[in-house]
């Protein structure tokens, strides 16, 4: 029987909406590390608000680390939060915040409509990730729209980021297969309306664990705090090996981000 990894790595957390008791629950169920992803879509739309959100995201990293939950941060401007003007000022504020090892990626970046403004903002942020030698966390059309996915992958290729340095959210088998075949990291963010743990387990069973990374998105709407441990249990029940469970639920994320999980 498969044995769960010593500590799950949740590759997408939004802890500002999580209580301390939620963090303790994560630890009790084996989540031992994570990536705190900036998500300014709800409130921050001006350059000053976006920059303040970056600082709030880094403060959440400190909060989780203080509760013995090692985490790192991804900073960036998602398409729904793009300011009318001043994006370059926002991006200029990222580099000074990348000292000390907390920031390991730019994210969540992406495309919703594929408009010229979205593509331009995506390209600028990917170029910054390339310059700063950071990873990138992206989502195109909710992880299902293959047309937007192909557009986004073309932008990544144009910028010159290595595919293995970019996590692309996948909410379908077709998207995950394309992302995996092209050498990208496939993000499996579990959500009752988009990608159920059962569906993610089927993707892993069909494609194998190579460069597939599990995440809960906990704190962002109707998400499941324990989605990653639940996925691990489903993979075990499907008869997949301990090595597969560990890859998808821990080591692939740490390898992508080039961080060490004790």
Written account of the structure:
With 262 residues, the chain is of the alpha/beta class. It has a single domain (8-257), classed as Metal-dependent hydrolases (TIM Barrel, Alpha-Beta Barrel), CATH 3.20.20.140. The protein is built from nine helices and eight strands. The chain is globular, with a radius of gyration of 17 Å. It starts with 7 loop residues before the first strand and ends in a 5-residue tail after the last helix. The model has no long low-confidence stretch (mean pLDDT 93).
- Identify the CATH homologous superfamily: Metal-dependent hydrolases
The general outline is globular
Q: Helix content range of the residues, please? A: 40-55%
**Strand order across the largest sheet:** 1-2-3-4-5-6-7-8
First CA to last CA: what distance? Answer: 24 Å
Name of the level-1 CATH class: Alpha Beta
Query: Count the strands?
Result: 8
Overall pLDDT confidence: 93
Gyration radius, in Å: 17 Å
Q: What is the CATH-assigned architecture? A: Alpha-Beta Barrel
Stretches where pLDDT is under 50 for at least 5 consecutive residues are none
Short descriptors:
single chain; 262 residues; alpha/beta; TIM Barrel; 8-stranded parallel β-sheet; 9 helices
Secondary structure layout plus pairing:
Blueprint: E1 8-13, H1 20-28, E2 31-37, H2 47-66, E3 71-75, H3 87-92, E4 103-111, H4 116-132, E5 135-140, H5 146-159, E6 166-169, H6 173-181, E7 185-189, H7 197-207, E8 212-215, H8 227-237, H9 242-257
Parallel strand pairs: 1-2, 2-3, 3-4, 4-5, 5-6, 6-7, 7-8
């Amino acid at each position: 029987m498969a044995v769960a990894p010593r500590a799950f790595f949740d590759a997408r957390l939004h802890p500002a909406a999580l209580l301390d008791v939620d963090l303790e629950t994560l630890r009790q169920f084996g989540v031992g590390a994570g990536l705190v992803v900036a998500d300014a879509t709800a409130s921050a739309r001006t350059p000053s608000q976006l920059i303040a959100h970056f600082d709030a995201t880094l403060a959440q990293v400190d909060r989780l680390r203080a509760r013995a939950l090692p985490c790192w941060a991804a900073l960036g401007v998602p398409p729904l939060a793009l300011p009318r003007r001043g994006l370059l000022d926002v991006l200029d504020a990222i580099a000074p915040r990348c000292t000390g090892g907390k920031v390991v990626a730019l994210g969540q970046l992406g495309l919703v409509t594929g408009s010229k403004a979205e593509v331009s903002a995506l390209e600028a942020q990917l170029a910054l990730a390339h310059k700063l030698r950071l990873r990138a966390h992206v989502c195109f059309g909710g992880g299902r729209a293959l047309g937007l996915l192909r557009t986004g992958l073309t932008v990544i290729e144009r910028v010159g980021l290595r595919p293995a340095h970019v996590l692309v959210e996948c909410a379908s088998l077709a998207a995950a297969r394309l992302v995996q075949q092209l050498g990208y990291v496939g993000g499996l963010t579990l959500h009752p309306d988009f990608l159920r743990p059962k569906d993610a387990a089927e993707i892993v069973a069909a494609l194998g664990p190579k460069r597939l990374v599990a995440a809960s998105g906990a704190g962002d709407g109707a998400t499941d705090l324990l989605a990653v441990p639940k996925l691990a249990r489903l993979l075990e029940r499907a008869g997949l090996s301990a090595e597969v469970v560990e890859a998808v639920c821990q080591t692939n994320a740490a390898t992508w981000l080039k961080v060490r999980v004790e």
